[in-house]
Amino acid sequence: MKISVTIEEHGVREEIILNYSIKNKQCKDCEKVEAKQHWKAIVQVRHKAEHKRFFIHLEQLILKHKAYTETTNIKIRNNGIDFYFGDRANAVKLVKFLESFFPVKVLTSERLISKDIQNSKSNYKFSFSVEVVPFFTDDLLVIEKNFAHSLGIAPIVLVKKLANTISLLDFINLKIIKLNANQYFSNRDKFNLLCSSKLLTKFTIIEINKPILKREGYHLVPITVTKNEMDVFEIKTHLGKDLKEEDTLLGYDLTNFNNSIITEDVPELVLVRKETNKNVKWKENLNLNEEHFYYLEDVANDKEIVGNLCEIENKNEIIEEFELKMNV
Question: Which tens digit of pLDDT belongs to each residue from 125-151?
Fold first, then answer.
């Protein structure tokens, strides 16, 4: 940029040209990040599941609580996300945030980068590996028989909720138990994933009978369902509270399921949830897949999840609007 300036002194006038150059200046920490991808600590979050519902939920929590503000970089990895920080304290803060919402196992390590012997100073990089339990809502688990007996539940259960504890539903006896992170990770070899929500199949109700058991807000009801209008099954389901004939349910077909972890008789079907109404006109043009619809339905049915979500100003109105649309 050039500026013409006229200077006058002692009756002498002279015109000179001033040349200005504008350079953007970053703070020292930002310069390090820009030049060398500098980071002091990293939090590596991993969730080894076949679907991404956990990360849908994690994204909303991070946005709501602004847990990303101190990061210098965020990268998507296989089965996880890496969060980079300029100092260890902010990384520890994110780890504690994750521990407050999910059952996790945390491993820490440090690596010496440089050492100033003269000034007795050392430079370290810190790594926090955060492993989340490898399943999510609606997944079907098989628990080692003796361990399941000690918990007072059947060996085949549904994951009903993943918060700072794991809620497991014994869908035959209508019992719900909660396990904390330590209870799971110290016995992880006794848990096996049988089916994830990617394997959910549609079934249509033909006939409904009266409930034979009511507990924990569930009704155990004998029903008759059909798959593809061909195969017919007579089973019991815990979803009997709000069902009617011709409703569509989502569940797991285990009739031809070949899995070595099953050691005893299993039901032909395990019904998980009613199918959501996807004929909803959203205010924004959202590209939603199956997992997003399942997650949105969970939001509508769980006030605790709603309370932790992002971009919800009037929670009651959002829930009522969503439930109304789901019942259309």
Answer: 999 999 999 999 999 999 999 999 999
